[in-house]
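Q: Here's a chain of 143 amino acids. Please give me its 3D structure as tokens.
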Amino acid sequence: MNSLAKFTIDAHGGLTRWEQFKEVSADLVQGGVLWEVKGKAGILDKTNVTVGLRSEWASHSPFGTAGRRSRFEPEKVAIEASDGAVLEELRQPRRSFAGHTLQTPWTDLQLAYFAGCAMWTYLNVPFLLAWPGVVNVVAAPAL
């Protein structure tokens, strides 16, 4: 791990402290113009997100209406009832964005994928820099 990554991780409580936990949750108000452009205004206005710290997954609850939650994993996204029953599911969700433009509306499953992926990343940085396989890449100077 490079010195900047170590410095940043230490400033956030250190790797040993982080490794004591399996997941983290945050209460959110997720607004902005993107949701309206994508036809999804209001779904994530007030929600709780929980993300995994050992594997890539995230869940927003409620997801739109009470009794619904999302479940994001890189290769699958789902909308579930509060008891875990799958209401809708999409495998290979990243592929569903092929051909989209900024104005292309999203399905609820696409919103769940985007928001889940983003929040998993946001709440795990900078600790992702300590994961096995992450290497320090130094850019070569421009010629």
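Q: Can you summarize the key feature?
A: The chain has a mean pLDDT of 92.
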